[in-house]
Structure formats: C-alpha cells, structure tokens
C-alpha cells in the first residue's frame, strides 16, 4: 500500500499541528482524518527528522532480515527433507 505522505512530511504536519490551535483546519488542509492524525502522533510524536530517517532505515533492515531468515528456514527444511528421503536423518 502506497502512503500519501512520507515520514518526513508526517513529522512536519505533526510539528505544524503543535504550533496551530486550529487542528480541524489542519486536518482539512492535509485531507486526513482525526484517526490518522492520532495514529501518526502515536507513532511519530516527538521524533525529529533524523530520528525518523533512522527509524525508517531500521524498519527496512528488519524487513530485509526477516526475508533472509525466511529464505534460510526454507532452505533448511528442503535439506532436511532430502536427508530424510536418503535415510541420513
């Protein structure tokens, strides 16, 4: 699913929300729901741009490592099945 806003844009929106008393106007301006705003605030509240970039890097690395682990587990399972068929296990 493609997001409309990047993490950097979300943080800027949240910073703008802290500075303005008209939150409803801000939500209309960026065409987001209150639920989205509160979800963003829960996830990114208090983060600065460098921290958000680092968070994104860590999330991407986590996805990559999970993929590598899944591939390795599949390879191990395949080897185990071959060894069992040959009677070596």
Q: Major sheet, described briefly?
A: none
State the order of secondary-structure elements, H for helix, E for strand: HHHH
Low-confidence stretches: none
Backbone shape = rod-shaped
What's the end-to-end separation, in Å? 44 Å
Q: What is the gyration radius calculated from CA atoms?
A: 22 Å
Question: Can you give a write-up of this model?
Answer:
The model has no long low-confidence stretch (mean pLDDT 91). The chain is mostly helical. It is built from four helices and no strands. It has helices spanning 7-19, 23-30, 34-44, 49-85. The two termini are 44 Å apart.
List keywords for this structure.
89 residues; mainly alpha; 4 helices; rod-shaped
Short characterization:
The chain has 89 residues and is mainly alpha-helical. 78% of the residues lie in helices and 0% in strands.
């Amino acid at each position: 699913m493609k997001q409309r806003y990047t993490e950097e844009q979300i943080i800027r929106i949240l910073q703008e929300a802290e500075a303005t008393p008209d939150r409803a106007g801000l939500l209309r301006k960026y065409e987001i729901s209150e639920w989205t705003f509160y979800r963003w605030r829960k996830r990114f509240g208090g983060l600065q741009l460098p921290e958000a970039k680092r968070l994104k890097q860590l999330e991407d690395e986590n996805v990559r490592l999970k993929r590598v682990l899944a591939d390795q587990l599949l390879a191990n399972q395949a080897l185990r099945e071959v060894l069992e068929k040959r009677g070596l296990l």
